[in-house]
Write a structure and sequence with these properties.
Elements: H1 12-28, H2 30-34, E1 37-41, H3 44-65, E2 74-75, E3 82-83, H4 84-91, H5 109-132, H6 139-150, H7 153-161, H8 167-183, H9 189-201, H10 203-225, H11 231-261, H12 279-284, H13 308-318, H14 324-337, H15 340-346, H16 361-373, H17 380-403, H18 410-427, H19 434-454, E4 465-467, H20 470-476, E5 493-496, H21 528-536, H22 555-560, E6 563-569, E7 583-587, E8 613-617, E9 625-628, E10 630-633, H23 634-638, H24 642-651, E11 653-655, E12 664-665, E13 672-675, E14 678-681, E15 686-687, E16 692-694, E17 701-704, H25 711-716, E18 720-733, H26 736-751, H27 761-774, E19 782-788, E20 791-797, E21 812-819, E22 826-831, E23 835-847, H28 850-861, E24 865-870, E25 873-880, E26 884-888, E27 896-900, E28 903-905, E29 908-910, E30 914-919, E31 922-930, H29 935-961
Parallel strand pairs: 5-6, 10-11, 10-12
Antiparallel strand pairs: 1-4, 2-3, 6-8, 7-8, 9-26, 13-23, 14-15, 14-17, 16-23, 17-22, 18-21, 18-23, 19-20, 19-22, 24-25, 25-31, 26-30, 27-28, 27-31, 29-30
């Protein structure tokens, strides 16, 4: 395997590739369009990629029109407020394809986004062709390799779900070639350019690509250059390329590194706690080579290449001395796929997500190229070895088929056998034009894989694509049109009700289209302080990339965040779970579903339950910035329960001892009432919560409040919000043997209820054993549910296979709802999985009566007045009667600078996560200004990098002028 850097003038291969790519694109993306879908997934692209592209386009357009004007580095529309530089640097700034959006009018941006998906993939194939031209390969062989490179499970998913991941398939071949150039004694400048592009494109993907380049460098030296390398010169060139690219990209890297270090991602559980993958992973890994559905189920390890790729691998190992680099690389990759720690390491020390497999497709595709290039020279011995290895492989695949039937395997297996047959016929000289036969079969295989993946009726990823025009409809009807006429001021915020979908089956987190300020926020990097605050209050909806969501509709929390309006769909979940103080403000025109359950005494249309979107309003929302003179020390605050912490937000402000010096201690008495409770099963047993052993899936439980029937207690519990606080949750799943025994025993028990009832013991045993095997049981996942008249509340421990959405759930506080008068006497409690639960919990009622309303009124009266919002700045005035703290619901960051009466003062972190300053008595003008942390030093380093680059260029020019 030898690279060549000789210039080639034959460019017909690019025309051939373009023609083939049109066929590939028609199968990969045309299927979506043919079935009425768009190329927009209803999760990340809907919430992040496309709306951020539109926002970034506005920012750049404003910069072009007014280059010397201050430009936004802080957005009030991204959740509670966020650093736009860090968000744009992850998604858009370094992505060269983003700037193609400027070639299209705003009205065509959705179309432009989808065209960019296709163009990105086309460029990935071009990069492979360019890479393959560094070897002595036939044109059709290179094009065939590009098909293998493009049509695989990784890109069938990622090119749509995470479009910028496709860019890595462009970058990696370039990085490999330019590294090889340095090893051969060539210039280091192209490698510096490739490194620079890699670093500014996306820092996370740069980390993966950087590791991949290092692995290539080490393996290439070990297998080829060990005894012939000029070590000193090579190390110098590699160092110069690295240093130059790091200096030039510092303007993005420094702020990004600071953001990551202060994000919710910091401190994630390594590999989601996995030491090994679930048994099903190892069982299905072999078949995933040629059949790569369920990418998440397989931790991103489902390669899903065209079937001839398997024969390419076999060919490499039959000629290992000729292709040592690929042979060693593929063995290393296989070992890496077996160990969760490897996936976690490549994933930034987080989930065991094998996104690094993007690096495998280059050697796999080259393996196919080398097989096809030498297909006519295969010996009988080599073909026999390929045949026997293929038979062994298919037997392994067949074993997995008995555990999980997969109809999508049929065509890949046929194509594998067909490829082997063509190679035999070629050896026997039975067929003419073998290249055409091989290319046709390869295209048919790739086309089937692409069409099957894109067909929306197989219940897979494709079923989650938005239909044509749906994105535009969602942006216009996000709140059923009830956002029309509302002020777009950042002084207040909006939200929806938890688990209540206004637009069904859509993950609708970020709102960048209506101009309103929704507290929900879904981005890869979130403010660490905000995440800590959410976890401290035991928000059951918390996730690292969605720290708040709807904060479980908790009344005080919503008020504190300044949520003035809530939008709720009347026929959705939790439609009646209105927080305290919210009332119906406006509704859409009612619609009636005559086939849905309706009141039995209905005699006319108006007696039916209407379906409509409702807008709720409250007059109790806290101001964005306000003054408090009632203080809570951090030590005192940490002793409070989650509900007490939440309720304390209205009673005082939390800050460090120096900041609250001289302030009055807040009065927290009577804020929260403990409610006596018991867990009782339908077997009439009082359950010990520290040893709740669930061995029968049909066993149910009630959470009973025995004292609520008492008149005095009932009166005390008026105007309260009911919370169930789980301070500690320990779940011990049954072993597989125990699980199977419990399920079989349950079958025997139910069979006794019917005369002559019998069960097939072995059939049932296999059924349950198979189910648990392919679902990774036993595992740590579980769900605790509490049902009330308002809906179902959940605390869920996710499976470790959910990757980025995994979290370790050790506690949680459920908001059952607000009860003006009729506090419930019991609730339905449902643990969803068999096993033993150790629960430390208490039921509390959060008082939201007269005292709370007075506190809210006081806070509103102490708001910062004459608020003025400018770019990266908010200002206002206030008169304070005594020393106190100006606090807010603006997320705290070291980037905030505060001025009081024109003088810079120290900012403080209040209520765990929010911006504040200490104020003396008197009339004051306050100005908060945001600066991106690390941006100034990043600019300085990059400016030095430009000077460094100029000097290196001059030195390089002078060296080249020296006579040899």
């Amino acid at each position: 395997m030898e690279f060549t850097f000789k210039k080639q003038r034959n460019y017909r291969v690019y025309l051939f590739y373009t023609a083939v790519f049109i066929l590939i694109a028609l199968t990969m993306y045309g299927t979506y369009l043919f079935t009425g879908n768009s190329l927009i997934w209803n999760k990340d692209p809907l919430n992040q990629h496309l709306p951020l592209l539109a926002e970034y386009r506005k920012v750049i357009s404003a910069f072009i029109q007014h280059p010397f004007k201050t430009h936004p580095m802080w957005s009030w529309k991204m959740g509670l407020g966020a650093d736009t530089f860090s968000i744009f640097s992850y998604y858009t700034i370094g992505d060269v394809f983003t700037y193609l959006a400027f070639l299209f009018p705003v009205t065509k941006l959705v179309m432009a986004y989808q065209l960019m998906i296709i163009l990105r993939l086309y460029c990935a194939g071009l990069a492979f062709i360019w890479f393959a031209r560094h070897f002595q390969l036939k044109d059709w062989v290179m094009v065939a390799g590009s098909v293998v490179y493009l049509v695989n499970s990784y890109l069938l998913y990622a090119s749509l779900a995470q479009p910028f991941f496709t860019t890595t398939f462009i970058l990696f071949p370039i990085l490999v070639v330019q590294t090889e150039r340095v090893l051969k004694g060539g210039s280091w400048w192209p490698l510096a350019g490739a490194f620079f592009w890699m670093l500014v494109n996306n820092y996370y993907l740069a980390y993966v690509l950087g590791l991949g380049t290092i692995i290539f460098l080490v393996l290439r030296i070990a297998t080829h250059y060990w005894h012939r390398l000029d070590w000193g010169v090579t190390i110098l060139k590699l160092a110069l390329a690295t240093i130059t690219s790091l200096l030039l990209s510092a303007v993005l890297l420094i702020p990004e590194i600071i953001t990551v270090m202060h994000s919710t991602r910091a401190g994630s559980l390594f590999a989601n706690g996995l030491k090994t993958y679930p048994a099903y992973y190892y069982l299905f890994l072999p078949k995933s080579l040629i059949n790569g559905g369920q990418w998440s189920f397989m931790f991103w390890s489902a390669l899903g290449i065209v079937s001839i790729g398997f024969l390419g691998i076999v060919y490499i190992y039959l000629n290992v001395r000729r292709y040592p680099l690929i042979a060693v690389a593929l063995v290393l990759a296989f070992v890496m796929l077996l160990i969760p720690a490897v996936g976690a390491f490549f994933n930034g020390m987080m989930a065991a997500s094998n996104r690094w497999t993007l690096l495998i497709y280059l050697p796999l595709s080259m393996a196919v190229c080398f097989l096809l290039q030498n297909a006519g020279d295969l010996s009988r011995h080599q073909l026999l070895m390929m045949t026997w290895v293929t038979i062994g492989y298919l037997l392994v695949v067949l074993i997995s088929y008995f555990f999980k039937n997969d109809p999508a395997l049929f065509v890949p297996v046929i194509c594998l056998l067909g490829s082997l047959l063509i190679l035999w016929l070629l050896h026997s000289q039975v067929i003419v034009h073998p290249a055409r036969w091989l290319m046709a079969l390869l295209l048919a295989n790739a086309g089937f894989n692409a069409i099957y993946a894109a067909f929306p009726y197989n219940g897979d990823f494709a079923s989650a694509m938005l239909t044509k025009g749906q994105y535009q409809a969602i942006t216009k009807q996000r709140y059923g049109g009830l956002d029309q006429g509302l002020s777009k001021s950042p002084t207040y915020r909006v939200s929806t009700i938890s688990q209540n979908e206004i637009i069904p089956d859509i993950l609708n987190d970020n709102d960048l289209s209506t101009g309103l300020h929704n507290i929900d926020s879904y981005y890869s990097l979130q403010n660490q302080y905000l995440g800590d605050f959410s976890r401290s209050l035991q928000n059951t909806q918390y996730q690292a990339n969605v720290p708040l969501r709807q904060v479980d509709d908790r009344s005080v929390w919503l008020n504190f965040l300044g949520v003035r309006y809530l939008f709720v769909q009347s026929n959705g979940d939790n439609a009646l779970k209105w927080p305290q103080g919210y009332f119906l403000d406006q509704s859409t025109e009612p619609q009636y579903d005559y086939d849905a359950p309706q009141p039995s005494n209905a005699t006319q249309k108006t007696d039916l339950t209407p379906i409509q979107t409702n807008r709720l309003k409250t007059n109790q929302a806290f101001p964005l910035i306000y003054w408090q003179d009632q203080a809570i020390s951090k030590h005192r605050y940490q002793k409070l329960s989650p509900t007490e912490k939440e309720r304390a937000l209205a009673s005082g402000v939390v800050a460090d001892n120096q900041a609250i010096k001289g302030l009055t201690n807040a009065n927290l008495k009577g804020n929260v009432i403990k409610v006596k409770s018991q867990i009782i099963s339908n077997r009439f047993n009082v359950i010990n919560p520290h040893h709740l052993q669930l061995l029968d899936a049909d066993e149910t439980y009630k959470l009973v409040f025995p004292d609520v029937a008492k008149k005095a207690v009932k009166k005390q519990l008026r105007q309260t919000e009911l919370h169930v606080e789980f301070a500690s949750i320990k779940y011990h799943p049954l072993t597989l043997k125990e699980q199977l025994k419990a399920e079989i025993d349950h079958l025997h028990q139910t069979a006794q209820f019917n005369p002559g009832g019998m069960i097939n013991h072995w059939s049932a045993y296999y059924k349950y054993w198979r189910y648990h095997l392919i679902n990774g049981s036993p595992d740590m996942s579980y769900s605790l549910q509490i049902k009330s008249k308002y809906g179902t509340e959940k605390i869920t421990q996710p499976k470790q296979s959910v990757l980025s959405f995994f979290k370790v759930v050790k506690n949680g506080t459920m908001n059952i709802g607000y009860f003006e008068k009729d506090f419930p006497q019991q609730l339905t409690f449902v643990p969803t999985k068999l096993g033993t639960y150790d629960l430390k919990y208490q039921v509390v009622a959060e008082k939201l009566g007269t005292k709370y309303q007075k506190e809210v009124k006081t806070i509103q009266n102490h708001r910062l007045k004459n608020l003025k919002f400018e770019t990266n700045q908010v200002s206002g005035e206030i008169t304070t009667p005594r020393v106190g703290i100006l606090t807010s619901s603006i997320p705290y960051s070291s980037g905030w600078e505060a001025k009081v009466d024109g003088k810079v003062v120290k900012t403080i972190r209040t209520n765990q996560a929010f911006l504040g300053v200490r104020l003396p008595a008197g009339h004051h003008r306050i100005v908060f200004t945001y600066h991106v942390p690390g941006l100034r030093i990043g600019i300085t380093i990059s400016l030095f990098g430009l000077l460094w680059t100029f000097l290196m260029a001059v030195i390089t020019w002078l060296v080249r002028r020296q006579p040899k």
